[in-house]
Specification:
It contains six helices and eleven strands. The protein is of the alpha/beta class and 209 residues long. Strand 10 and strand 11 form a beta hairpin. It holds the Pfam family RibD_C.
Length: 209
C-alpha cells in the first residue's frame, strides 16, 4: 500500500519548473496560497535533496487560512545536506530517506529530531510504502524534476496539479526531468479541472489517472 500522491508544481508555458540559472520563482501570491492550502490538506510533503540545497525551503502551510503543517520528507541518497537548512531547524517533523547516509550528518540531524530512514536500494515504491506504514495517507510532491520523473516512471502518483506561469525559459529543468517514455506508451491522464487564477495571468490545471 502507498499514500494517495499529488504532484504539484508551477511551470512555464514550455513546461519548465526552473531555468538554467536555477530561477524558479514562478508563482503569483494566489498560486502560493493555493499551494499552501494543499499542504495543509495532506499528511506529508516530499521534495528531493537538490530542491533543499538550491531553495532551502521551510515547506510549511503558513499562507493557508487553516495552518496545519505536513510532515516534511526529503530524498537524499547520501544525506549530503547541510544541517543548518530550515527543514532541520524548525517544526514540523522532517524525515529523510537515504541509501548510504553520511554518518556525521546523520548523527547531527538526528540530534535535532530528524528521522533518517535507510532503505537500500531506495525506490519510490519502497519509500511510499514506508510512508504509508508510518501513517501517511495523502502525500504532496513539489519536486524537483528528477523526483517527479522517478515517481511517474515507477507509476507512483494519482494526480498532477500544475499552474502555468506566463514565462518561457527555453531550457532548464522540466516538470519531469528524466530519460523519457516512448510516445505511444507515455502516461495519458484525464483533465479534471481548469481554473483561471485570480491574478488573471495564470491557469491551474488538475489531471488525474
Amino acid at each position: 500500500m502507498r499514500p494517495y500522491i499529488i504532484i504539484f508544481s508551477t511551470i512555464t508555458i514550455d513546461g519548465k519548473l526552473a531555468s538554467v540559472d536555477h530561477f524558479s520563482e514562478l508563482s503569483c501570491p494566489y498560486d502560493k496560497e493555493r499551494q499552501h492550502i494543499l499542504r495543509s490538506e495532506v499528511d506529508a510533503i516530499l521534495v528531493g535533496g537538490n530542491t533543499v540545497r538550491l531553495d532551502n525551503p521551510s515547506l510549511t502551510s503558513r499562507r493557508s487560512p487553516v495552518r496545519k503543517d505536513p510532515v516534511r520528507v526529503v530524498i537524499s541518497k547520501d544525506l549530503n545536506l547541510n544541517p543548518s537548512f530550515k527543514i532541520f531547524q524548525t517544526p514540523p517533523p522532517t524525515i529523510v530517506y537515504s541509501e548510504n547516509p553520511n554518518p556525521l550528518i546523520k548523527k547531527e540531524v538526528e540530534e535535532k529530531g530528524v528521522k533518517v530512514r535507510v532503505i537500500n536500494p531506495l525506490t519510490m515504491k519502497s519509500l511510499t510504502e514506508d510512508l504509508y506504514a508510518l501513517g501517511v495517507r495523502r502525500l504532496m510532491v513539489e519536486g524537483g524534476g528528477k523526483t517527479i520523473w522517478s515517481l511517474i516512471r515507477e507509476d507512483c502518483f494519482d494526480e498532477i496539479r500544475v499552474t502555468i506561469s506566463p514565462r518561457i525559459f527555453g531550457s532548464g529543468v522540466s516538470l519531469a526531468q528524466g530519460e523519457g517514455f516512448p510516445g505511444k506508451i507515455s502516461p495519458l491522464l484525464k483533465l479534471k479541472a481548469v481554473e483561471e487564477c485570480q491574478c488573471g495571468q495564470e491557469v491551474h490545471l488538475i489531471y488525474v489517472r
